[in-house]
Here is the input.
Amino acid sequence: MAEDARTHPPLIPGTLYIVATPIGNLEDITLRALRTLRECDIVAAEDTRHTGQLLRHYGISKPLISYFRFNEAKRSEEIIQRLSRGEKIGLVTDAGTPGISDPGERVIRAAVQAGLRVESVPGPCAFVAALTASGLPTDAFHFVGFLPHKSAARRKLLEQLLAVSGTAVLYESPYRIEKLLAELNDTFPARQVVLARELTKRFEEFLRGTPAELLAAQKGRTLKGEFVVLVGPETATRPPMVENKAE
Ligand code: SAM
Here is the structure.
């Protein structure tokens, strides 16, 4: 086999390619992701306008179809039919890895159940970037994603996390970060918490401390941007409170 075919095997007809895209920094895309997007027949995107811009940035022109949480069931059928006809489809979301707190899971499950080929083209994922740089234990962790919006359901889920070993990893919107810190202060007052903010972007920073310390730290400033929130296990040693602060 020629070297090129081993390192750059052609895309396989009838395959659903799950392609990770940047979470902020446009340099964070693999060579294989770019080639997959260039060589597939169509790209199924969460938001075709957003992905259209991303593809244009890399000089790729490709037909796009949209799939998102509310049309995913219907779109899954169309995607399955296209795959069954031998099309090669790249599946992307607005940022990071499809299916991780993003649509994709349903399409992927439908393809697996239909006996079709599914291939992962791995790359950026916010929680992996946050966990690995947090300084908290990475040997065991529990990914929660977004908490429910209702207070009682949030409290219940947080209390269940008390019984989970390892680092707990949550996604949170900037509008609820103060609320979440207050809830963590109620449930995990002595735990080490890390806020990983604006990962891979200009104002990336890691804020470390107990929930009360972080609440006090954010009182003087409004924390904006995207966050991954990590809660260390009971035994986690105390890292310095604030580090990697943006200028
Ligand atoms: N599929 C994505 C992934 O692979 O991480 C997650 C998508 S989810 C809709 C968006 C959430 O991920 C944000 O609210 C935030 O919690 C987290 N996130 C995404 N990008 C981030 C970034 N650059 N810095 C910090 N958190 C980020």
The chain has a mean pLDDT of 93. The pocket of S-adenosylmethionine is lined by residues 23-24, 93, 95-97, 100-102, 125-127, 171-173, 196, 198-201, 226-228 (CB under 6 Å).
